[in-house]
Amino acid sequence: MEEIQSQSDNYRSSSSSASSPANRVPAFNFFYLRKPGALGQPISFEDSPEWEDTDVDARVEEGGDSINAATTPVSPSLSKLNSGSLPSPYLPEGAAAGRKIAGASVAWKDLTVTIKGKRKYSDNVVKSSNGYALPGTMTVIMGPAKSGKSTLLRAIAGRLPLVAKMYGEIFVNGTKMHMPYGSYGFVDIETTLIGSLTVREYLYYSALLQLPGFFCQKKSVVEEAIHAMSLGDFANKLIGGHCYMKGLPSGERRRVAIARELVMRPHILFIDEPLYHLDSVSALLMMVTLKKLTSTGCTLIFTLNQSSTEVFGLFDRICLLSNGNTLFFGETLACLQHFSNAGFPCPIMQSPSDHFLRAINTDFDRIIATCKNWQDDNGEFSSVNMDTSVAICTLEATYKSSSDAAAVETMIQRLTEKEGTLLKSKGKAGNATRIVVLAWRSLLIMSREWKYYWLRLILYMLLALCIGTIFSGLGHSLSSVAMRVTAIFVFVSFTSLLSIAGVPALMKEIKIYVSEESNQHSGALVFLFGQLLSSIPFLFLISISSSLIIYFFIGLRDEFGLLMYFVLNFFMCLLVNEGLLLAVASLWKNIFPSVLTLVTINVLLMLAAGYFRIRDELPRTVWTYPLSYIAFHTYSIQGLLENEYLGMNFSIGQLRIISGFQALHSAYDISPSSNSKWENLLVLFFMAVGYRILVFVLLHFHARKNLSLHRICECSCDSTT
């Protein structure tokens, strides 16, 4: 303790000297702390009011959904603090919707989250955290990287991964962890948006997927969300741009992701890093918009790495974490006083959040060592000479024994001593509606994504044209049979390989599904049926255009029924291949390993398809069983050859006539039955269904992991009582 105290005193002296009146630049050069409505009147930290304890009173309204918290200051000076004496930037009109939302209180008590192997020295990612969030307020969870911010946010929202175990209690309106669908929204640090849709279209389709009722009723909800996030100027712009047009900037994209959750008008909104990848101007605009959003009554809880002074002044409460330990929870200005009481006052030239993170981020120890070496070689360089581990221990010990920690416990007790109104589910859109919406949205995306869909169509037609011109003019003699078998094999095999070009588009669809499914906007069965309905027109267009080219170029029989079977067979082949692509993409969820796996699978299936060696002559192990029987190339080629040659005869000289089956018997293994081509088509149909069942199992397994998070959190909470 003597060592900690000595290092703390050293830092106190260095920081105090930086902010003392003798060494300070005149206050009119700083806009460090400002009183509300006095943006042009800069005041310094020394001009801020004295810090005293406050009595906190919580009232639960009977029959209401909200809990009103009133702070009763002990002294007039503290009333200035509670009213806010940090910057209050100009809030633009129309930054939030005017409709009021019945907020909800959230309180967490002794919350501990354990993830095995997550930390080097301890499995506890969050350790005995206490805090609360009230309706109409902004509560920020701040700390350096790997401090447990996102884990704490996910724990409060009930979205921890399966490997995590949570202990403690979480209360919503005084009731243990009850947040039904639609009562809260969660915005992840990275949300997959649909670049080929405009902002209004994207939010409208999101509303159709989330909300029950008629389509026309959801337009007003979408306009409210656009109005709330100040997206009116971007409502008709494509999110991802088009051709030479740029898409939305990162700040507007982030606001679109938040607006998607506002469609449900949630009581509580959780946001993981709302300022992720934003510049200072976009960050300030984002926080001003969110501050205006709280005026509607919504409870806002989010994580943040650091912020500017202006942004810091918009927060109502701050939860400061380091290595999972809570170093402070309370009013934002009280955090400054807490650091000052612990011996680490904020220098006048420094932003509060920068000062906090400088004091508690252990990564700065390396910078300190570098600064000391620089100072030895170049003279005085920096006054930073504090070990961050000392600061963390000092701040944690000071907070535990402070009146701030006692005030938090008192507030939590008052918020949980009486159960308030339970949050009710707002209902979901029906599965049939969701399937239709997803199918229609996917068709709209296909019509605009030229590089993923229309370019693929052109490539299929070019490939069919190339194969057709190479094998054109074969005639109908017995000698043309082997070449025509080669042409059909090359056509089926190469088009299957070309289908791998659709992996990026499918991967994007899966990422959109995962993003929507995590918030229960979609489901595995809904996604599969919607994707199937939307892909059928595109695949049928490919099959018709490519089949017409190859069919007449290689000189197949000129009969309409045979041509239609060729088209239908190739369509089923594409449908099976699409299912295989979906299964592999769902398994890997990454483009490179998916492409590598699909190329390997297609090459193996091509080798076992019976062209290089007929099925009866293949080695029994692996190649015949199971590869030749699971290769969809085999059934497609068999069906196409049977469609062409069964019922056809070839003359050998003037006396002998052989059937098409006999002519093909040595080149490819087919059945002499007239119904065999339909049996092959039926096998392709079952394979298409089987691959989609596999995709459903993979997606449903992923969905069950997400849906079980709430149960695990509830069981962990109950085990502590």
TrEMBL record:
InterPro entries linked: AAA+_ATPase, ABC2_TM, ABC_transporter-like_ATP-bd, P-loop_NTPase, Plant_ABCG
PROSITE patterns, per the entry: ABC_TRANSPORTER_2
GO cellular component, one term: membrane
Annotated protein name in UniProt: ABC transporter G family member 3
Domain ABC transporter: 106-348
Annotated spans, Disordered: 1-23
Pfam families: ABC2_membrane, ABC_tran
Composition skew (Low complexity), residue ranges: 1-20
Species the sequence originates in: Hibiscus syriacus (Rose of Sharon)
Localisation: Membrane
Family in the record: Belongs to the ABC transporter superfamily. ABCG family. Eye pigment precursor importer (TC 3.A.1.204) subfamily.
